[in-house]
Structure formats: C-alpha cells, structure tokens
Amino acid sequence: MEKFTVKDLNITYNGKNRKKVYAVDDISFELKAGESLGIIGESGSGKSTMIHSFLRLLPEKTAAVTGHAYFDDIDLLNCGEKELKDLRWKEIAVVFQKSMNSLSQIHKIGTQFEDIYRVHYPKARKQEMKEAICNLLEIVNLGPHVYQMYPFELSGGMQQRLNIALSLMFHPSLLIMDEATTALDVITQGQIMDEISEIEKRFSITRIMITHDLSVVASSCERILVIYAGRLVEYGKKEEILRKPLHPYTQGLIQSFPSLYGKKEQLKSIPGTLPDLSQTYQGCIFAPRCRYASERCFKIRPQQYILEGDHKVACHKYGEKKDE
Ligand SMILES: Nc1ncnc2c1ncn2[C@@H]1O[C@H](COP(=O)(O)OP(=O)(O)OP(=O)(O)O)[C@@H](O)[C@H]1O
Predict the structure, then answer these.
(1) Interface pTM (ipTM) of the complex?
(2) Which of 48, 53, 96, 280 gets mutated to test ligand 1 (max ligand atoms within 8 A of its CB)?
(3) Are residues 255 and 224 in the same domain?
(4) Domain of 136?
(5) Where are the strands (E) in the chain, listed by range?
(6) Ligand 1 shell residues, CB under 6 Å
(7) Which tens digit of pLDDT belongs to each residue from 70-95?
(8) Residues 76, 196: one domain?
(9) Does 254 fall in a domain?
(10) pLDDT one-digit tens code per residue, 104-152
(11) Residue 299 pLDDT grade (very low, low, confident, very high; cuts 50, 70, 90)
C-alpha cells in the first residue's frame, strides 16, 4: 500500500426511539505508507466507530456509513466482500482491546499459530514456521516456552500480547490498533510499541491507533488526529500538535495530561461534557465548552483550515488569521 485516504466519512447510528446518532461527521485525512497515526479524543467521540468502519465491522442494521476509505485505490467502504476478505489479516490487521477470546482455549498456542501461518504459506516447512512464530513471540515479550502452552494458562495481558503477535504475522500494510495495549503494564507496553515501530520501518507498515494514553502517542506515532464529538478538530504532525496545539480543544486535552515536554504544570480538565450526538448543531460543536467562543462560533460551523504543510484545524480563530 502506498497511501490510505479517508474522504468525507460520515457515520450515523439509528439509536433508540429511531433517533439518529451522528457519530462521525465529515472526517477526511491521508496517510502515506509507513506513517503512524494516533487518534485521540474523549470517550464517546467516535474513534472506534471510525476505525471499525474501515473493516466494515459496524452493525449493518443500525449503522449508516457514507464516504470513502481508500486502501490505495480500493475503497474499503464500497468494495466487494471478496476483495475485502482478501485484504483482511494479510494486508490489513486489527487488534482490539478485548481480543482475548480470539484463540481456542483447548489447543496449544504453537499449533494454532501454525494453522494460521499455513493459511497464507501452505507449503511452509515445520522448522521455518516454528522459527517465524518464536520470533513473533519474542517481539511481544513472550518466551518460546509459550509455544507448548494453552491460552488459558496465560494471563489476560499475555493473551493480549499473543493477539498483537498474530496481527503482525503477515507484516500487514495497515495495522489498526483499538486500545490494544491498554491492558498491558507500562514496561511491556513500551517494549512492544518499540518493537512494532521497528517492524513498521522494516516493512513499511502504516499504523492507525486509538489510545487514551498520550505518552504512547508521543513515543510511537508520527501524526495525530484529534476528534471531538465525531468531528475532526485538528490533524497534523505529532511535534506540531503536542508542542503547539492550535485548537482550544486540543490545548485542553493536552493540558489534562501530565506534561510531556517542558516544565511541570498543574493538570487542568476541560469543563463541561460531550454534547448529545443525536442533536444537530449549527456552529462549532465545541463552542459551548470553549473559552474563546464568540457569537460566530455558535452560528457558523468552522471549515478545516490548512495551515503549514498539512496541519489542519477546524476553528474560526485561524480563519480570521487567514482573512487578515
Ligand atoms: N451500536 C450503536 N448504536 C447507537 N449508538 C452507538 C453505537 N455504538 C456507538 N454509538 C454512539 O456513537 C458515539 C461514538 O461512540 P464510539 O464508541 O465510536 O466512541 P469512542 O470515541 O471510541 O469512545 P471510547 O473512547 O469510549 O471507546 C457515542 O455517542 C456512542 O454512544
């Protein structure tokens, strides 16, 4: 894959009482091969909905998806089932926070990994397979003895590491991680992310990850997408966003985490709560919580202003600067 392009993505759920929930509202961004993206935003802002849509994993009856997610020129949202099936796992791999039940409890781990390995390499020799699998186990900090074990003999965190290992088995072009390392201790998480970053460089893997841990984004992602109530508020290079966040929401989000750069400062939370996504809003959806909001912000939805490079921000403040 050379690039992954999300264009005009809109997702609504048909909630209870036939009320529509606007979970993802007009999101577009592009990633080149080998880039890594961290998606951040409060709980309920549409992060999981968005990335699940890329693999068409949303409930068909309740979720309505429009727009495009191009894996090169294949539109994952609109291509045929067969085309999507061919890409899953080998080209696009996904790990969820609770992927713990994906392995059978009654078969040895090594045997299950071998069976999966053979799906794409049917002629692989036993020794070659074992080496490749032990290598994978090592990447996620598990010793070769795990080969002979059953999943139920491992802790939850160790099982999650197996799932991460499985996702890397075929060196996918696109790796999607939804809170995949949240259940792990900080040291293991750090080691695994370091290894993943290494493999990504070697095989030019593009990674999209959701995490609530900004330090993981800071240490392992090149780009950041900030979403609020289903809308893109800011997108750009990690250094730009973490050192000089432009959108008041991004500023608030970063101030609510312990300092990553510079001097230690008191943590601040963002007053107010996420809006009701079953309502439609005329202006900027963040305006009711924004300390800089003016009358215009409540009336007109800000467009996404592109500043330096491809740094995007959806805030009237930056439109005014451009108009000056
Ligand atoms: N199956 C569903 N039916 C109706 N509404 C849903 C459904 N799944 C999610 N939603 C709504 O869509 C919105 C976005 O949810 P989503 O899980 O994508 O957010 P998130 O940012 O991933 O949250 P978290 O960080 O807590 O995982 C929320 O308002 C949620 O209530």
Answers:
(1) 0.97
(2) 48
(3) yes
(4) 100-171
(5) 3-14, 20-32, 36-40, 63-71, 74-75, 92-96, 174-178, 206-210, 223-228, 231-237, 305-306, 312-313
(6) 13, 15, 21, 23, 41, 43-49, 59, 62, 277
(7) 999 999 999 999 999 989 878 999 99
(8) yes
(9) yes
(10) 889 999 999 999 999 888 999 999 999 999 999 998 889 999 999 999 9
(11) very high
